[in-house]
Amino acid sequence: MGKSSMSLLTSLTYLAADVWSKQVDEARKLALDPHATRSNQVFEHFLTLVSEHHNTERGVAFYADRLCITPRYLSQITNESVSKSPKQVIADYLMGEARQMLENSRLSVKEVSDGLGFQAVSVFCKFFKQQEGCTPGEYRRHIAE
Description:
0% strand
């Protein structure tokens, strides 16, 4: 792995940690609470798994399997915790990272796509537009104004 690739990987890691830290901190507070439920603990573990595997795994079944629960139960937990599906929690995490990378770096859209583990730039652009309502390029131009 070249020096620029390592630098890119390091930058991506720091960006991911920054974006996700607030949600993880909140989940940890709930988990440390003696009155926290098992659901809160499972949700925290889910968030941790998403932060670790979001570049390679986007399927709810993967995370449910890692948590030793069914996808349906994971959906119930995320709905109770944040009123979102597990799929939307994963998408929100990816979008947070994508926004951070587009706003705070000079990475090309292709580099952002690659950094987030998308198979192709077109897949990333379609995902971004579904979530944000504009393309990554339009988003970057809008924030530059």
